[in-house]
């Protein structure tokens, strides 16, 4: 059961049971959740405590230290009603709001958005037509949902003209300008300042690990694809990390705990950052990968960790190179791929720049804008 | 001794001692550092292994698994010379390069940039004149160094015209456009979508904790300051966190370990993110604070942590409100303050919008660009 499918009746309050420092709510649809007095007082939704824009008006230091209710009841619309002892303030909490905020174990687990892991066999691909996405908010909502679930998604029919990639970027989020500019051309060019601008094959990697904050999403738009080769390789870094966790738990732990330095420097820039190769959230779930052998700076860690670290790093590199994890795509002019940079590692096969032209344009957008847009579209849906 | 003050002779190699899996280098200036074979092979600086732009050309999977030297010597210029057993490849490491990359305990400690903690008594302020900074690269380097050390710095003499704040932002880094635009006006206005746009006093806070990535730096430029009040309050969040660590170790641990949700929503946006209030790096040093009571969303954590969390949160809020930690500044037209958003918490005293006009403009820039610029200027110095 997800919260989206929760019927209004299920979210209704069946009974309230006062306890020490908290109220326990049993839901009509089954299950129960605790709500602590201090939490309830802090989250009073009355217009004195909460601005209509959702911002809190009461400083935590102005709340009574000992939030104790004088009276706890249900009102005639089924909302939880509390009159507070210290100052007589009255708080009213709608049942469905409480249900959405519940922090019992099951409620928290049900709210987690789980990534859909994939490998070389992924079908169908998360994809949509750009003109449809522009026209139809629910098509865009579904496509953005697929992007968030899989860590990448394709758009077809994006007009193959320069600059278009940044227009798409500003549609789904907000383009982040970097030292490479608002957008960048991926095209073999003489005297390249970055290996991306050569015709070499590139192993799968995440972009710009030497940059903090690292870009959240990368967009690549195919304008010309005449050269044989240059196919796009994609690996789900979350799936690869889960394999690593199973196959080499100690190595996984090292890559997750010990940050490694990355660097990129040219005439005008000297970008340096440190990240663990496998970034975990507070619950130990894989959150983001930083893997880019070209930009890896010399390891800088406790001497006794050097050999175990290299063994773990090599092992993870070997997992990332597995054909059964590698999805191969050939982008045609008008195709645009959006990749969650910390998850969908990308690379390319080599190509012969003399056998035909190849021109992609790329840009970066941050996570905040993309996720915000997905939520705003879900409101409407 | 810092590396910057290290004389060339000190970085010279006195002796090399082969060991199991590593070479130990004794420096002529004293001290010694281990360099593992696997590390040396991975960091071979020859043009086959390293592109002139500093990017690695050899994939970690193409390195010999067992990096063993056939011969280790010093060449006639004092560089470490290794011929590798597996493939006869030759690597030459200049002594000063090795010294800069050394990962022995003392070498790693000496490289750490330590923040300069401050409180209400800070004097002199980190500040400079904008025209001087524009004209004189070494003045800019010193000012940027002060910004990195203190987490904030002032500029005076910035022409008090709208839009100038983004020009300064693009000078010291790269402006990040958000849902608030490329820059934003802080001015009391009717029907505000954010409490920043009212005349209320604001307790010290970090900006946009509901945004991932959270902006690295905020710039605020004073255009008009006629209204009495509206003084700027600044607290060093790193200093406050260190007080918390000493005064309430368990509370510190909770605030550092357990992320809390933040949210901002209006018609076009629904921004949500989770961060621990006190963010630590892998060594346990304080790295960034996320503290903004107005944008704090209802706590969502294991029920048994709710009461201890509130106690810790309240305690930290009380530390952040201490007058002895609070620096008070009055910005005049032409003053611009740059703040490391995750460190220098800022607030303001209330003001009377009817007693005179008040107009600030602000923008955000990310850390990568600012730190890169500081390094590029240090190269020149």
CATH topology of the largest domain in chain A: Double-stranded beta-helix
> In CATH, what is the homologous superfamily of the largest domain in chain A?
Clavaminate synthase-like
Question: For the terminal residues of chain A, how far apart are their CA atoms?
Answer: 19 Å
Largest sheet of chain A: 7 strands, mixed
Question: What is the molecular shape of chain A?
Answer: elongated
- Class derived from helix and strand content of chain A: alpha+beta
Number of strands of chain A: 21
Q: What's the helical proportion of residues of chain A?
A: 25-40%
What does the radius of gyration of chain A come to? 25 Å
- Approximate strand percentage of chain A: 25-35%
Tally the structural domains of chain A: 2
The low-confidence parts of chain A are 1-5
| The top level CATH class name of the largest domain in chain A | Alpha Beta
* Oligomeric form: homodimer
Biggest chain-to-chain interface with counts: A-B, 82 and 82 residues
Layout of strands and helices, then pairs:
The structure is a homodimer of 381-residue chains.
Chain A: E1 13-19, E2 22-27, E3 32-36, H1 37-42, E4 69-74, E5 80-84, E6 90-93, H2 95-101, H3 105-111, E7 127-129, H4 130-135, H5 137-150, E8 152-156, H6 164-172, E9 175-176, E10 184-186, E11 202-205, E12 217-225, E13 232-236, H7 237-247, H8 249-257, E14 260-265, E15 270-275, E16 278-280, E17 286-289, H9 306-320, E18 326-329, E19 336-340, E20 344-348, E21 358-365, H10 367-380
Parallel strand pairs in A: 7-8
Antiparallel strand pairs in A: 1-2, 2-3, 4-5, 5-6, 8-19, 9-21, 10-21, 11-20, 12-19, 12-21, 13-18, 13-20, 14-15, 16-17
Helix pairs in contact in A: 5-10, 7-8, 7-9, 8-9
């Amino acid at each position: 059961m997800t919260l989206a499918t929760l019927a209004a009746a299920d979210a209704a309050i069946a009974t309230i049971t006062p306890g020490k420092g908290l109220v326990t709510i049993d839901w009509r649809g089954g299950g129960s959740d605790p709500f602590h007095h201090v939490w309830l007082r802090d989250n009073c939704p009355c217009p004195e405590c909460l601005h209509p824009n959702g911002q809190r008006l009461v400083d935590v230091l102005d709340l009574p230290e000992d939030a104790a209710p004088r009276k706890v009841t249900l009102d005639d619309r089924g909302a939880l009603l509390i009159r507070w002892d210290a100052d007589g303030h009255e708080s009213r909490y709608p049942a469905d709001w409480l249900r959405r905020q519940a922090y019992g174990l099951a409620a928290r687990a049900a709210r987690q958005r789980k990534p859909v892991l994939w490998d070389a066999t992924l079908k169908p691909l998360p994809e949509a037509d750009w003109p449809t996405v522009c026209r139809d908010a629910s098509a865009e909502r579904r496509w953005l949902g697929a992007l968030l679930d899989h860590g990448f998604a394709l758009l077809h029919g994006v007009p193959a003209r320069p600059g278009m990639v940044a227009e798409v970027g500003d549609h789904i989020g907000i383009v982040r300008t970097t030292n490479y500019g608002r957008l960048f051309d991926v095209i073999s060019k003489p005297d390249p300042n970055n290996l991306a601008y050569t015709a070499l094959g590139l192993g799968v990697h995440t972009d710009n690990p030497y940059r903090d904050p690292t870009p959240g999403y990368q967009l690549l738009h195919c304008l010309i694809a005449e050269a044989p080769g240059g196919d796009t390789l994609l690996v789900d870094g979350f799936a690869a990390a889960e394999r690593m966790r199973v196959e080499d738990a100690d190595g996984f732990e090292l890559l997750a705990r010990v940050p490694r330095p990355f660097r990129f420097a040219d005439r005008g820039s000297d970008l340096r950052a440190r990240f663990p190769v496998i970034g975990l959230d507070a619950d130990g779930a894989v959150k983001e990968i930083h893997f880019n052998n070209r930009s890896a700076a010399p390891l800088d860690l406790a001497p006794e960790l050097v050999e175990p670290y290299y063994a773990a790093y090599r092992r993870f590199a070997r997992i990332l190179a597995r054909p059964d994890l590698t999805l191969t795509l050939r982008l045609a002019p008008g195709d645009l791929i959006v990749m969650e940079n910390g998850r969908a590692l990308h690379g390319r096969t080599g190509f012969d720049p003399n056998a035909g032209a190849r021109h992609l344009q790329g840009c970066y957008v941050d996570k905040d804008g993309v996720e915000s847009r997905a939520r705003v579209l879900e409101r409407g849906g």
